[in-house]
Amino acid sequence: MATLLHIDSSVFPAEESASRAVTEAFRKHWEEQHPQGTAVYHDLAAEPVPHITADAHLAGFVPASAHTPGQAAAFAERVRLIEELERADAILIGAPMYNYTIPSTLKAWLDNVILMGRTAGENPSAKGTPVTVVASRGGSYAPGTPREGYEYVQNYLRAVLADALGLDVEFIVPELTMATKNPAMAELVPLYEASRDRAFQAAAARARQLAERVAA
């Protein structure tokens, strides 16, 4: 049975969150293809994982037999999250842009699962696992736009997910999500609606594609 690791990090509920709406659509199509499968879900806004501590960090560089009680406890939480990553057949991440980058809760999850010599390094333990990132944003930071240089979501996540963890990354980018809320962006509403529609279509297509890939 296929396992989907689904992570949301938006601080807003589903009815107000562009990233949650699209990850929900992806998961719906995924579960239609894998009705007997397993979905491991983390809502990092409701239940954040611990931010990395000195004990959790240092424990990754010494044998378990040499761990202090504090290191052992902190590292156990890292291992639990790492094992979820390694067991997943596909990964789905909602990553809205807050102040030009990802939510701190998502950064905390990444800090826990990136472990040199295991998930990162020459032979990453989850290498090749497909990961779909829904990278929503209130404006547009696409190439050629005035704020292109402020894009620290896709650039950063590509570096850590693809380069460090060896995952197979694809982004879905619903943009201009503030157009319906900010009067100054009213003329951009049609572009937002088109972006939203493309995101839902891409989520459905990606879910079906990965379902076929996992079943093959």
TrEMBL record:
One term of GO molecular function: oxidoreductase activity, acting on NAD(P)H as acceptor
Residues of the Flavodoxin-like fold domain: 3-173
Leading EC class: oxidoreductase
InterPro entries: Flavodoxin_fold (IPR003680), Flavoprotein-like_sf (IPR029039), FMN-dep_NADH:Q_OxRdtase_AzoR1 (IPR050104), NADH:quinone_OxRdtase_FMN_depd (IPR023048)
Keywords on record: Flavoprotein, FMN, NAD, Oxidoreductase
Catalytic function, reaction form: N,N-dimethyl-1,4-phenylenediamine + anthranilate + 2 NAD(+) = 2-(4-dimethylaminophenyl)diazenylbenzoate + 2 NADH + 2 H(+); 2 a quinone + NADH + H(+) = 2 a 1,4-benzosemiquinone + NAD(+)
Cofactor remark: Binds 1 FMN per subunit.
Cofactor requirement: FMN
Residues that coordinate or bind FMN: 10, 17-19, 136-139
SUPFAM superfamilies: Flavoproteins
Chain's role: Also exhibits azoreductase activity. Catalyzes the reductive cleavage of the azo bond in aromatic azo compounds to the corresponding amines. Quinone reductase that provides resistance to thiol-specific stress caused by electrophilic quinones.
Family membership noted in the UniProt record: Belongs to the azoreductase type 1 family.
Protein name, per record: FMN dependent NADH:quinone oxidoreductase
